[in-house]
Each structure stands twice: as structure tokens, then as C-alpha cells.
Design brief:
Saccharopine dehydrogenase family protein; about 400 residues; binds NADPH dihydro-nicotinamide-adenine-dinucleotide phosphate; Sacchrp_dh_NADP-bd; 2 domains; Sacchrp_dh-like_C; NAD(P)-bd_dom_sf
């Protein structure tokens, strides 16, 4: 029986609250805190059991520390934005509370994706006897656990890893992002980067692509090479990996809009002067794009996110594909959110459950692949994200 304090009342926060509320035997007390408390109250009103809400600016460490000391939760689940990660970790250290997030820290003024800032907290959390679990969403998150699971049960060594994120859903809007538009566009417009023979190789944004034939009736889609943060931790923790890449599907329509927005300067993250007011174009763009939450009732189709791993088992070369299929409309029927928020929020709840049940509780700062994957994989099957593993022949491998 534990108390959890969830920070962030956006698309992902809504799913985490719904899923924790369904599991009263683990999460018997829930507090939802965010910058705009009315959004917390709107989520609370969707639930069949009462939860507490609070207003907090998570960038104000003193204010957040006071809230944590007053509420005394067992764990903080951070599903605000990546900019808040370090402030929330500081407040957790001040108040002596375990920590979990779903995205690595990003400095607001630079789209830089790396774990260095959060890994630097290792000693502080260890000394305080507190657990910090980083990246407990789907990618990062489940993809890290999938890799650890294949390594534990299917392959003695992994040599090549391709993480493939396919959203075959359609929301019918001319242009919209499935999660926070600012975070999404910063990520997508960054240079591609992949791991090869012990070093990072860079590619211009979204220039490397190929077709991949997805299961469950989704069929062939174009996938684009991008950098994604789990590549950094997975290649660190499985140093035998010779090549690791991350791919994502984009529709031609999404790419056409993105190209125009970039060309006209609307994706810039540096301030520009507009009639004497400083405006960051990407933040302004966010304010005119559809709220990802509004896409929930509109989105139809499936997501398929998984890992293709090639390696050696008992001296033989083997290739396995492990993936989940999630249906946007089924997610909406269950928790009033589309599958992108759902596939992030469910693993955040399961990561929280792992810590609260002492299965993944260890002082320090950890990535998902550093713990035993088995209890997490069991819970994915039980709480809404069932997975399967198939063996591929060499023709199933991406080039
Ligand atoms: P949203 O923009 O929908 O929600 C973010 C929430 O955080 C909002 O409620 C916002 O408040 C709140 N917030 C922002 N700043 C502060 C602050 N200073 N103090 C308190 N609350 C604040 O984002 P999403 O729900 O789409 O994404 C949440 C997180 O999940 C992000 O970090 C994202 O990167 C991550 N993510 C991870 C994925 C994965 O697979 N690992 C996939 C998708 C997302 P307000 O309402 O006032 O703006």
C-alpha cells in the first residue's frame, strides 16, 4: 500500500493516473500535481475513485520540496516535460523520496539529448538511499526492457539492434503531433545519430529511410532513422552491441508540413523579437497546433513499437523481433487517451509498481535495462501492453 505523487496533467499524466487508479492494491493514495490545477481536476473527474490534486511549479525546487514534505509520497512520477527533470530530482533528494521519469533532461535553450546530467546524480541518490528510475515510458522504457529480455532469454550476445516505432494511426487533422508538439518537433528535427563499432555516426535529419513491413495488418511503411535517447544507455549497458539504430514512421503529409515549418523558421527554439516581445517560434507554433489530448477521440488505427535484435545463441546466428500492437480506439475507450499517451503512461505505472513493490528498488540512478526484465514484462501483458517475440529469417532483417 503506497502513496504516489504524479507531476504533469497532460496526455501521459492522464493515462498514468487512470492506470494507477485501477490498481488500488498498489497505489492506495494518489496525488496529481501540475502547473495548471484545473487540468488535474478534469482528469480526477474522469475517475471512479477520489484522488487529491495540487498546483505546483516543478521548476521551483523550494515550492515542490514543500509539497513533497507535506504530502510525504513514497514515489514521485515525473510526467511533466524534460525541462523539469533536474528540478524534480533535486526536490526528491531534499524530501527523501524515490523518483521516476519517462524522458531524459533537456536544457530548454538547446535540443540536446543525453543522460549525462541525470547520470551525474548517481552518487547523490545512492548516498541518500533513494532510487531514481529513468525513462520508464515506451521508447525509452519498454524498448530498453525488450532488449534486456531478449539478451536474457533469447540471445547470448546482441550484435545489431534496430528499435522501430510505427504509428499507423490517423487523426484526420492536416498536421498535429501525438505528444507535446514542442518536445516532438525538437526531437524529430535533430540530426540522426546511430551507434556503429564503438562510435556515433551522424546523418542529416530524416534523410536515411527505408520501407518496413509491419505485422498485424499494418503492412509496409516508410521508416526514418533518428537519434533516440535509449541508444545511449543501451549501448553503454550492452557493450557487445556493434550497431544500434532507432527508426520512426512518418506520413508524407507530416513530413511535408514539417519541411515548410522548418523552412519558414517556425521550428526555431531561439527567441525572436516580435513588436518588442520575445517570442520562441516553436513555442508559438505549439500554441496554434491541435492539443494532443484533443486527438484522443479522433484517432483510429494501431501502433507497433518493437526491437529487432540480431545476435548469437549457442554459436548460431539468430534474429528476433519483439513488439507490441496497440489500438488507438481501444485506448480511448479505456482511459480517454490515444495510444501514444497510453503506451507511455502504462510503462510509467508499471515502473512505479516495480519500485513500490521493491522489485526494482536500489539506491542510485538507473536505466530500465539495468533491472531484471521479467517482472516488468509480466506486467506489460497484464496491464494493457501485451507483447510477442517472433524469430525472423535473414530476409526479415532491415538493411
Ligand atoms: P503534455 O505537454 O501533454 O503535458 C505536460 C504536463 O506537464 C502539462 O500538464 C504541463 O502543465 C505540465 N508542466 C509543464 N511544466 C511544468 C512545471 N514547470 N511544473 C508543473 N507542471 C508542468 O506532455 P505529454 O503528456 O505528451 O508528455 C509528458 C512527458 O512524457 C514528456 O516529458 C514527454 O517527453 C514524455 N514522453 C515520453 C515518451 C516515451 O515513450 N518515453 C513518449 C511520449 C512522451 P500545463 O498544463 O500547465 O502546460
Amino acid at each position: 500500500m503506497s502513496k504516489v505523487l504524479i507531476i504533469g496533467a497532460g496526455g501521459v499524466g492522464g493515462v498514468v493516473v487512470h492506470k494507477c487508479a485501477q490498481l488500488a492494491e498498489v497505489f492506495d493514495e494518489i496525488v496529481l500535481a501540475s502547473r495548471t490545477e484545473s487540468k488535474c481536476k478534469a482528469i480526477a473527474a474522469q475517475l471512479s475513485r477520489p484522488i487529491k490534486t495540487a498546483q505546483v511549479d516543478a521548476d521551483n525546487v523550494e515550492e515542490l520540496t514543500a509539497l513533497l514534505k507535506a504530502e510525504k509520497p513514497d514515489l514521485v512520477v515525473n510526467v511533466a516535460l524534460p525541462y523539469q527533470d533536474l528540478h524534480i530530482m533535486d526536490a526528491c533528494l531534499n524530501a527523501g523520496i524515490d523518483y521516476l521519469d519517462t524522458a531524459n533532461y533537456e536544457p530548454p535553450e538547446e535540443a540536446k539529448f543525453e543522460y549525462s546530467w541525470q547520470w551525474a546524480y548517481q552518487e547523490k541518490f545512492e548516498k541518500a538511499g533513494l532510487t531514481a528510475l529513468l525513462g520508464s515510458g515506451f521508447d525509452p522504457g519498454v524498448t530498453n526492457v525488450y532488449t534486456a529480455y531478449l539478451r536474457k532469454h533469447y540471445l547470448d550476445e546482441i550484435h545489431e539492434l534496430d528499435i522501430i516505432d510505427c504509428n499507423a494511426g490517423d487523426h484526420g487533422q492536416p498536421f498535429a503531433t501525438n505528444f507535446n508538439p514542442e518536445i516532438n518537433i525538437r526531437e524529430v528535427t535533430a540530426k540522426g545519430r546511430y551507434w556503429k563499432n564503438g562510435e556515433w555516426c551522424e546523418t542529416p535529419p530524416l534523410t536515411v529511410n527505408q520501407s518496413y513491413d509491419f505485422p498485424a495488418g499494418i503492412g509496409p511503411k516508410n521508416i526514418y532513422l533518428m537519434y533516440h535517447e535509449e541508444l545511449e544507455s543501451i549501448t553503454k549497458h550492452f557493450p557487445e552491441i556493434k550497431r544500434a539504430r532507432f527508426w520512426m514512421t512518418f506520413s508524407d503529409n507530416y513530413l511535408k508540413h514539417l519541411e515548410v515549418l522548418q523552412n519558414v523558421g517556425m521550428t526555431r527554439i531561439d527567441p525572436v523579437d516580435y513588436n518588442g516581445t520575445e517570442v520562441i517560434p516553436l513555442q508559438f507554433l505549439k500554441s496554434v497546433l491541435p492539443d494532443p489530448g484533443s486527438l484522443g477521440p479522433l484517432t483510429k488505427g494501431k501502433t507497433c513499437i518493437g526491437c529487432v535484435a540480431k545476435g548469437i545463441k549457442d554459436g548460431q546466428e539468430k534474429i528476433y523481433y519483439i513488439y507490441n500492437i496497440c489500438d488507438h480506439e481501444e485506448c480511448y475507450a479505456e482511459v480517454q487517451s490515444q495510444a501514444i499517451s497510453y503506451t507511455t503512461g502504462v510503462p510509467a505505472m508499471i515502473g512505479a509498481k516495480m519500485i513500490l513493490e521493491n522489485k526494482w528498488k536500489r539506491p542510485g540512478v538507473w536505466n530500465m535495462e539495468q533491472f531484471d526484465p521479467d517482472p516488468f514484462m509480466d506486467d506489460l501483458n497484464q496491464y494493457g501492453l501485451p507483447w510477442q517475440v517472433v524469430e525472423l529469417d535473414s530476409t526479415g532483417l532491415i538493411s
